[in-house]
Design a protein that fits this description.
alpha+beta; 9-stranded mixed sheet; 8-stranded parallel sheet; Ig_E-set
Length: 1898
């Protein structure tokens, strides 16, 4: 029972109903009242039960699969008839006939005859299907000037009934098809339904897209028309070309008026006429595709016309299918009508395999799959596969490709899946795959490219689906881009761009014919075709992802028939790789079958096989035997409690370990007899997505049962079930639901005398009746008769009278159709009953047995006597069972034993054998359609039916005549196929359809029996049934979100549909009274909004994430100020006032625009004499008061002595006041509405610009900081890091770490600022030694006011354990430390509370309140300066510790919703860890700048390190730099231009890739002079990355060079060599300052630039100058360097060697051109006991010991929260005493560090400081991979070191000596280089010791 969380286990009476699959159904809206959510989740229990076997299905393999397509552009393929080159035109002008083989934009002469002649060429390659670009008659030439082009590609159709004479004739096509079919090759046409040639012009001569929000369509009478709503309807509005469109369609000449064929295409009203598409929003469907005439595919004339076009070629030619262009640019309803029709038509002509697939140009699987599910297309081109394959083939990893495979489940429903998708690598639009790889891998060799192309082909052929080869790819064509540049000629080209191209793998150019079967790619494709033809697994097998990691992807394919596993492993890396691939079962023997046959591995006990895959290749294994049976005990994972069900949610079956299994998912809501089959998945993970709210019967209070039935390949069956309760989704009062379309009044007259009786109606009805012309009671049910009434939208009140002439039966009845869309009325009874049972007091139970024996049969209902089934009818036996409410639980018993059980949800229940059904139609598995025509003429009206039918209509002209007739009209009763989800059908008379669109009767959601009135359709084209009832979709309303975004004071961006007839406004209420109530937004005043297009221009640049989204202007600008301080809700109502959308707003953009002057003010509290001035920017506050206290620090809960109301400045939104308040403590009291808290509240808050605080940060203080100056402070100068920061090494130090364990510091001062003033302490002495060597800059971890450390030492807890007595590998230490981790005195401090006040816990007890802590901080800076140290402070502005009105929140209390960055839904983004700030907002950006300047001037620090700087805009960082540059020694005591700024330029989160602004990321900061940490050299030196699963991945300094540790994570020897080459280049590049443009000879031998060196698929080099790089090997994040090497070096490595490797790791950092950075203690082997994230690990794990007594290793296992997964690695190491360095080892490490910095300081060649100088002087002579030889040549360029001609640095990480060749002779050992003394120099030959850093001088 622990598999799912449940409140209780409830026994379920499980019925076994008819199984109803749900296929291709769009997600339904949530039912009636509110959105639904998951309540209790109940485990039904595992195990099969009756009916499961019938439920279990096979995964679909019905559509085309395993065909091998050749996509050809005939004009560029082969010229078989030069006579048609000019299309038969006598003109010699290319602008007339379009032929010019020398121009890539014109016809080149290829034709059908040429293609026919080359069929043998295609057949030899194994092609089984040809897909041709469109062949229809085109506009030959379009455009003018430089844009002129010809229609050689075929996508500018003018005549769909004939072929373009450039290509040939219909007869030519027939001959081609006949020959192809003889070879077994299918032929597919490319066709366009979205647009035609550009014939229509606009009178306005403007072509920018105009949206419907600005200018709706108008009908011929001027009424707004929503063509989306009208799509597919037979009553589509009449349009007028002169008035209906935003642009006026015209023709340039008379010939153009009739140029298109069929003739209906010439009607301009059948086009959208809205201008050129922007390819976003509605313009994707309504806009002209690059000027081409965009068809109004919503129009029924277009739908029917396109049906005729598509089907006509089926009649004319024996084609096999269509590829449909630009599918996503056409409305979904069109495809729903067209695609099934074409398939059905082809089947009626004998081609049941006819296949239609569409182009949905998107890598988003959720979009592409929607066209095969909702859109009912058979398949779409697999653009997601293409995107994943490109990433993989480009060496960017297999992760995306793996995701694509896992996302295949999106295509799975009951009638389709991903197995029929055409896969491809490149095409005529995006470009060839060879070109794309070249773009992704600049500088790639042709040899490597060829291998990658071969890899791509193999991958595609082994993937599920239908591989597509783009013509010419088999000959190595690459091209120079997409579109025209990817459309080369296969025959000898005269086009310069094509003729000059040398093809990959060929040595030939485009100037020659290229139909060479001997081309390696052609041969490979032929071989692949032969290979995959040998086994059906490649056509019908499943596909299971096994590995997607780095350069490796592996998957299995198993066919359910043969049950043999084929394992495909592909390696896109440049080195061979070994991988353990999970397989189907253990102890299975495999043969290698590709690329050659041979013996293979046997799977291990953990069901994996070890496979070594050569570089850029594929290996295929085949199991020798069938995979065994396995566990089929699924665990059904249902959506969790609280899940909101407003979109599809995942159902998953875990625990299925059978090697091959097929999982069928089904659902059934409480009260439903029938299972709805959701789909069958045959590949793990087993899952489908389900629209729970759209399931039949789903409603608030109902339970929905889910079931999964799994069968394995050997017949084993397993099942599991779960149920969820449905509850309303929060917040209460959810979206409004529309009313039903119809009201049905049932009327019963026992005598059956209904003649003359009618229903009179008025109120919310479409057409009120005249008394003499009421609605007849024509419909017939078992109850009696019924009348039906068409309602107005939103109908809530309908008056009715039943009468005959003037005789009434009862009085007036007023009905609310939204509550009771059906009512029941009895003759002579005034009561109006909401259900049939309420009217009759009974349920009629019908029972049928196959043997006809009903003796002793009765109906049993708990608590009442059995009712014998004594009656008889045409179905069987009948009983009338008393009932007063529904549902009614009952069972059928015979001879006292229950034979069936279930429930009745209406007045009747039908029992067939042991199953209970809701209707007779359901029991008989029939779809019954009743049809009413108001004119009563049913002549020749028939039903065409296909999908779901047991016996589909043979053809359109052989549709089904009526099966019956009653008072309603005629009816059809169609027997369904077993398990059919419904019935596809069209009611028609000839070619006239009713209602127009193809229909699908979903028997699961709608029912098996429906009543339809002619012409009644909903907006989606589907029938609006009289019975059963249906309702409009619910509104999208959630005031708890904030999706509407103010971008200026009078413009609001809101991504909602824009319609001119709808209403848009912002409600606002300062009292916070706006709410959702009964489906409407109530409360507040209105600001009216006007649609104003889409966001563009400057505002789009400012808000790029909102660009091109709808923007609304404010009409009532006078009340904007009032609204900005109030609760707001953006509201969209339809023309009838019904709520469509409602949401909160994000106000930052409006505040920035409205209060621009606010940035000019100073918000820091100031003191002048006895007076102080307070200013707080709180523009949304209704009141701000100053709470004043005394001059002594008050208690946290002290009452104020005085409260002063501040004055608001209307221009800036700032509140201020001045008084005699010097030295007094204060707080602000802010009142107003908080969107964060969603209420009006008054909060007390400290000053965001505080300069002095009380202990505990409870109160701010008006302090004169001038009085807090230590002696000599006025003369103290912050001189920064000079002109060249690379001359200063950085040590990263934590204030508390520095002295908390230093016995040479008085105990009261340990861990405080004061400790730094003890000049002769161990710590200060150590810092001084480092500074003298050049490691002179102390980078202090955060020292601002920190939220996460108790400031009073007395309140700080310490671990209550004897930590030192515990074992070095024990878990006990971390557990003990963890117990007090949030209450002790330690934290890294990245939890800002107040940005501008020093942290109080670092002050001594007597200095924690007021200016005293400022004074101590200044003393610390002063002491460090005197010690020879520069001071850099770590600043954190990217997030706050908390938000809202939380105790540790400040900014969000002052201006709620402004200072924090909000996501698209208005929630605070937390990608940084906590509540992200928004420095892109003006006042947050100002706060950052003001704070930095404050620290520089007030504390005279020398630099700033920005935490997560990539979350700042680049502009913000440049503003910081500019503000610092203005500071002078004379005015500020600061040399601002020399203040150093650097930070973390990481790129992630909601701002990643410049999504919201140009970020301050690594690459973006090039050229700014602001430094960023470079992770390139770090990873190369250490090995792997910070988040490796296995931490033993080795790097240059951890054994990759000659000292392998044997960890599998390091890969094969070949992979290790490859990585070593790359790492060596990364180290070299790091030593060159990681410059993007630095050119050097790579370790592999080829010249490269910095940006060409690979770093995890990205360019490694990015800096413009060396000062922009901070090089490091360790920092406070992740493991210390010693700890990393402890895990990576072989455990047996001697300590002396470990010390040497620590030096190896430091050498590139210290002797390179960037700025060197060391984590404090790295110089003495500091360890944190392997803790990778010690931010809250206490003093114990963060020990810093410059006494060299204890480096910190072996202090127990590190904290479980971040390290538990690494404990298996850590434990043996920590327990090894050999890994604990002694003092002498630590001393050696310190000496090594001092040596390196001494060397750096010995020559300016190590700090050239200029990119040009580095390029001139620094080179890397050849050496084996792993050995770094750096030559600093002072004879090149200007002389920078008069003392020498050059330096040679040799870093040898190998455990053996190495000999390198120096670039010249005359070298001698540098006197400071200890290892150089052991080097042997013989001319240019230099032999260096093992594990050494040698520096030579010349």
């Amino acid at each position: 029972m622990g598999r799912r969380l449940m409140a209780a286990v409830t026994a379920l009476l499980v019925g076994t109903g008819v199984i109803v699959p749900a296929a291709g159904i769009a997600a339904a809206q949530a039912p009636a009242a509110d959105r639904l959510a998951v309540g209790a989740v109940t485990d039904i229990g595992a195990g099969t039960r009756p009916g499961d076997a019938a439920l279990a299905r096979d995964a679909l393999r019905g559509d085309l699969s395993g065909e091998r397509f050749y996509f050809v552009m005939p004009d560029r393929f082969a010229n078989g008839d030069r006579a048609n080159d000019r299309g038969g035109s006598p003109s010699r002008d290319r602008l007339v006939h379009g032929f010019d083989p020398a121009d890539k934009s014109f016809y080149h002469g290829g034709d059908l005859k040429g293609l026919r002649q080359k069929l043998g060429y295609l057949d030899g390659m194994g092609v089984t299907a040809i897909w041709m670009t469109p062949m229809f008659a085109n506009r030959w030439v379009q455009g003018e000037g430089a844009d002129v082009s010809a229609g050689y590609h075929g996508y500018w159709t003018t005549d769909f009934t004939r072929f373009d004479p450039h290509f040939g004739t219909t007869q030519d096509m027939k001959a081609l098809i006949a020959d192809a079919h003889r070879l077994g090759v299918k032929v597919f046409f490319d066709i366009v339904a979205n647009h035609t040639a550009d014939v229509i012009d606009y009178a306005e001569k403007k072509y920018d897209y105009i949206g419907t929000g600005a200018q709706p369509y108008l009908d011929a009478e001027g009424n707004p028309v929503d063509i989306a709503a009208a799509a597919g309807r037979p009553d589509f509005p009449e349009l007028d070309p002169a008035t209906s469109f935003p642009y006026t369609p015209v023709f340039d000449n008379d010939a153009d008026r009739t140029v298109k064929v069929p003739s209906w295409l010439n009607d301009p009203v059948l086009y959208h006429n809205r201008g050129d598409s922007t390819f976003s929003g509605e313009s994707t469907e309504y806009g002209d595709f690059v000027g081409l005439d965009d068809l109004m595919t919503e129009h029924p004339v277009v739908v029917e016309g396109m049906k005729d076009i598509f089907t006509s070629w089926i009649d004319t030619l024996d084609i096999d299918g269509y590829r449909v262009d630009t599918v996503k640019h056409v409305n979904m309803e069109f495809w729903q009508a067209l695609a099934p029709h074409v398939k059905r038509y082809a089947a009626s002509k004998g081609n049941k395999d006819f296949f239609v697939f569409g182009e949905v140009f998107s890598s988003d699987t959720s979009l592409t799959s929607s066209y095969t599910t909702t859109g009912q297309m058979q398949s779409t081109l697999d653009f997601p596969f293409q995107s994943g394959a490109l990433s993989f083939l480009s060496g960017k990893g297999a992760e995306r490709l793996g995701e694509v495979l896992v996302e295949d489940d999106r295509y799975t429903d009951a009638d389709s899946n991903a197995n029929s998708l055409p896969t491809f690598l490149g095409n005529h639009d995006m470009g060839r795959i060879a070109w794309q790889i070249r773009q992704e891998r600049p500088g790639i060799t042709d040899a490597e490219l060829l291998e990658r192309l071969r890899l791509g082909n193999a991958l595609m052929y082994f993937w599920r689906g239908n591989p597509v080869v783009y013509y010419g790819d088999e000959q190595g064509m690459a091209g120079g881009g997409g579109d025209k540049l990817a459309r080369q000629s296969m025959f000898a080209s005269k086009t310069p761009e094509f003729a000059g191209e040398t093809f990959v793998g060929a040595g030939r150019t485009g100037a020659q014919d290229n139909f060479r079967p001997q081309h390696p790619l052609y041969k490979q494709l032929a071989s692949l075709a032969d290979f995959v033809d040998r086994d059906t697994v490649w056509r019908t097998g499943n596909q299971v992802l096994r590995v997607a990691d780095g350069d490796l992807i592996a998957f299995s394919r198993i066919d359910r028939k043969d049950l043999q596993e084929f394992v495909v492993v592909a390696n896109s890396g440049t080195e061979a790789k070994s991988v353990d691939v999970p397989v189907a079962a253990r102890n299975l023997r495999y043969d290698t079958v590709f690329p050659a046959k041979g013996a293979g591995p046997t799977s291990s006990a953990d069901a994996t096989v070890r496979v070594e895959v050569p570089p850029m290749s594929v290996l295929v294994l085949e199991s020798v035997n069938r995979v065994p049976s396995g566990q089929v005990v699924p665990t059904l994972v249902a959506p969790a409690t609280g899940t909101v069900l407003d979109k599809r949610v995942e159902l998953r079956a875990d625990g299925v370990t059978a090697p091959f299994a097929q999982a069928t998912f089904a659902a059934k809501a409480q009260g439903q007899a029938d299972w709805t089959v959701l789909g069958t998945d045959d590949a793990a993970p087993y899952r489908v997505e389900v629209d729970v709210a759209g399931l039949p019967g789903a409603a608030d209070g109902k339970r929905v049962e889910f079931r999964v039935v799994v069968k394995d390949g050997h017949g084993a069956l397993g099942a599991d079930g779960a149920a969820i309760g449905l509850v309303p989704a929060p917040p209460s009062g959810g979206p409004q639901t529309g009313s039903p379309d119809w009201l049905v009044v049932h009327y019963r007259r026992p005598a059956g005398d209904y003649d003359g009786w009618t229903l009179h109606t008025w109120g919310d009805v479409e057409q009120p009746t005249e008394w003499s012309g009421g609605h007849p009671f024509s419909g017939e049910t078992a109850y009696g008769r019924f009348a039906w009434v068409k309602l107005k939208p939103g109908a809530r009140s309908v008056g009715t009278v039943v009468h005959k002439g003037d005789e009434k039966d009862g009085g007036d009845r007023v009905i609310d159709p939204a509550l009771t869309p059906q009512v029941w009325v009895d003759q002579g009874d005034q009561a109006t009953h909401p259900t049939e049972v309420a009217a009759t007091g009974r349920v009629t139970v019908h029972y049928q047995r196959g043997d006809g024996d009903y003796s002793g049969a009765a109906v049993k209902v708990a608590g009442q006597p059995d009712v014998p089934l004594s009656g008889r009818d045409g179905f069987g036996a009948v009983a009338e069972v008393p009932a007063d409410a529904l549902p009614l639980e009952f069972s059928v018993v015979k001879g006292g034993a229950a034979v069936a059980a279930g429930r009745a949800n209406s007045g009747s229940a039908w029992v067939k054998e042991d199953k209970v059904f809701a209707s007779r139609a359901a029991a008989e598995n029939r779809a019954v359609i009743h049809y009413h025509r108001p004119d009563g003429d049913y002549t020749d009206w028939v039903l065409y039916h296909w999908t779901g039918s047991l016996n589909p209509s043979p053809g359109w002209t052989q549709s089904r005549p009526k099966d019956g007739e009653d008072g309603f009209g005629i009816s059809w009763s169609v027997e369904l196929a077993e398990g059919a989800p419904g019935l596809s059908n069209i009611i028609h008379k000839g070619d006239t359809k009713d209602p127009g669109a193809d229909q699908f009767l979903d028997v699961g959601s709608t029912g098996y029996e429906v009543w339809f009135v002619s012409g009644s359709a909903r907006q989606d084209g589907q029938a609006s049934y009289v019975l059963p009832s249906s309702s409009a979709p619910a509104a999208d309303a959630d005031l708890g979100q904030a999706k509407a975004v103010w971008v200026s004071k009078d413009k609001l961006v809101w991504d909602v549909p824009v319609a001119a007839t709808d209403g848009y406004h912002v409600r606002y209420d300062a009292a916070g009274g706006i709410k959702l109530e009964n489906g409407a937004v109530v409360g507040g005043k209105h600001l009216r909004l006007v649609p104003a297009g889409r966001l563009s221009g400057d505002l789009a640049a400012k808000f790029p994430h909102l660009a091109d989204k709808p923007v609304f202007g404010v009409r009532d600008t006078d009340r904007i100020d009032e609204a900005l301080g109030a609760q707001q809700a953006a509201v969209h109502v339809d023309s009838g006032g019904a709520l469509r959308h409602a949401t909160g707003t994000q106000i930052a953009g409006a505040l920035d625009d409205r209060y621009r002057g606010a940035t000019a003010l100073d918000y820091r509290p100031t003191v002048s004499g006895a007076n102080a001035t307070a200013r707080l920017w709180a523009p949304t506050a209704t009141s701000v008061k100053l709470r004043l206290f005394g001059t002594a620090a008050p208690a946290a809960d002290a009452a104020p002595e005085q409260v002063v109301a501040l004055t608001r400045d209307a221009a800036t939104g700032a509140w201020s006041g001045t008084g005699a308040w010097k030295d007094r403590y204060y707080q602000y009291e802010v009142s107003g509405y908080s969107p964060t808290e969603r209420k009006v509240r008054t909060v007390v808050v400290t000053d965001p610009y505080s300069v002095s605080l009380a202990v505990g940060s409870t109160h701010s203080q008006f302090a004169d900081l001038g009085a807090a100056a230590p002696g000599g402070w006025s003369g103290e100068v912050a001189r920064g890091l000079g002109a060249d920061p690379t001359e200063h090494g950085i040590t990263e130090l934590h204030v508390r770490d520095f002295s908390i364990g230093d016995a040479s510091v008085p105990e009261a001062e340990r861990g405080t600022y004061k400790a730094f003033t003890r000049r002769d302490s161990v710590g200060m002495t150590h810092l001084r030694d480092l500074a003298e060597a050049g490691l002179d800059t102390v980078h202090l971890l955060p020292t601002f006011d920190i939220a996460s450390i108790p400031e009073r030492r007395a309140e700080q807890r310490t671990p209550d354990c004897d930590l030192a007595a515990m074992a070095p590998d024990s878990e006990e230490q971390q557990a003990c430390v963890d117990a007090v981790r949030d209450a002790d005195g330690f934290n890294w401090g990245y939890d800002p509370l107040h940005f501008d006040v020093p942290e109080g816990s670092y002050a001594t007890d007597d200095a924690q309140s007021g200016p005293a802590r400022v004074r101590q901080y200044r003393e610390m800076v002063q002491a460090l300066h005197a010690n020879g140290n520069k001071v850099v402070v770590d600043v954190v502005y990217n997030h706050t510790t908390s938000s809202g009105d939380a105790a540790s929140s400040v900014l969000d209390k002052v201006v709620p919703g402004y200072y924090q960055r909000l996501d698209a839904n208005g929630a605070i983004a937390t990608s940084t860890c906590c509540a992200n700030t928004a420095p892109e907002n003006a006042m947050m950006g100002k706060l950052v700048v003001d704070s930095v300047v404050h620290w520089a001037k007030t504390f005279k620090v020398d630099g700033f390190r920005f935490d997560l700087m990539g979350h700042h805009p680049k502009a913000n960082m440049l503003a910081v730099r500019a503000a610092l540059d203005k500071l002078t020694v004379a005015a500020d005591g600061v040399d601002g231009r020399k203040i150093r700024v650097y930070g973390e330029g990481w790129n992630f989160g909601e701002v990643a890739d410049d999504a919201r602004f140009e970020q301050a990321t690594q690459a973006n900061m090039a050229g700014t002079g602001i430094g960023t940490f470079s992770d390139r050299q770090r990873d190369a030196v250490r090995g792997g990355g910070p988040f490796d699963t296995d931490p033993r991945v080795q790097g240059l300094a951890s054994g990759l060079a000659g000292d392998p540790n044997g960890a599998p994570a390091n890969g094969t020897p070949s992979e290790q060599r490859s990585r070593l080459v790359n790492y060596t280049d990364l180290v070299k590049l790091g030593m060159a300052g990681n410059l993007a443009d630095y050119r050097f000879d790579g370790t592999g031998g080829s010249p490269v630039t910095g940006r060409e060196v690979d770093y995890n698929g990205s360019p490694a080099g990015y800096a413009a100058q060396p000062g922009e790089i901070v090089n490091y090997s360790d920092a406070h994040d992740n493991e210390t360097l010693y700890d990393a090497l402890a895990m990576k070096l072989p455990q047996g490595t001697a300590m002396a060697d470990r010390v040497r490797m620590q030096k190896i790791a430091h050498a590139p950092v210290v002797l390179g051109q960037g700025q060197p950075f060391l984590h404090a203690g790295a110089e003495f082997l500091r360890s944190k006991s392997l803790d990778r994230n010690s931010y809250n690990s206490g003093d114990w794990f963060n020990r810093y010991d410059p006494t060299l007594t204890d480096n910190g290793f072996g202090r127990g296992l590190a904290h479980a929260v971040d390290n538990r997964d690494k404990w298996p690695f850590h434990g043996p190491l920590l327990a090894d005493p050999a890994l604990k360095p002694a003092r002498e080892h630590m001393r050696t490490a310190v000496d090594d560090t001092l040596e390196l910095f001494g060397l750096r300081a010995s020559s300016p060649l190590f700090t050239l400081g200029d990119a040009d100088a580095i390029q001139t002087k620094l080179s890397f002579p050849p050496a084996e991979a792993g050995v770094v030889v750096a030559h600093l040549d002072d004879t090149a360029g200007a002389d920078v070191d008069p003392a020498r001609d050059g330096l040679l640095v040799v870093v040898n990480p190998y455990p053996q000596a190495r000999t390198v060749t120096a670039p010249a002779s005359g070298w001698s050992a540098h006197p400071l280089s200890a290892d150089a003394a052991e080097a042997s120099i013989d001319g240019v030959s230099v032999t260096v010791p093992a594990r050494s850093v040698v520096v030579l001088s010349r």
